[in-house]
Fold this protein.
Amino acid sequence: MSSTLEPQGVKTVATCPLSIEINGHPRQLEVYPWTTLLDLLREQLHLTGTKKGCDHGQCGACTVLLNGKRINSCLTLAVMHDGASLTTVEGLAKGDELHPMQTAFVKHDAFQCGYCTPGQLCSAVGMTAEGRANTPDELREQMSGNLCRCGAYPNIVAAIEEAMPATREQLARNSKGEGQ
């Protein structure tokens, strides 16, 4: 990255190259150094499933999976993740086949307005991969960074509990290179 001086003495900042895999597709991008991962997804790539809620990392609406780990995309700069693999809510399903977590959210009506749902889904998949939540209380604690203003928490917990075994199976298949 370098800066250049324009004719009227205005300094401009050059973009930075970024190589990142998004939802299984390699991308070569140019981003400004101050671009958050959330703004890259929404504004530059038009992947608007990831929501901008508080923009301070307090609500979880922007949760995505970075190298399989859940993160708040509003709190990290895109340039920090050169070479990374990113999964957004758009990347959970395989074509027309919903991810088991998505299917359970629909079955249990685990959303009302739906604004928090993409972050809830990515967080639930990431939490399942972490393997630290085995009881409803542990699940609620591990999901506490994802807020739902509508109060759909009981349905969210029921959906996650139901989907955890199938999600673990799918994660195990993907780690062995199957089902991709």
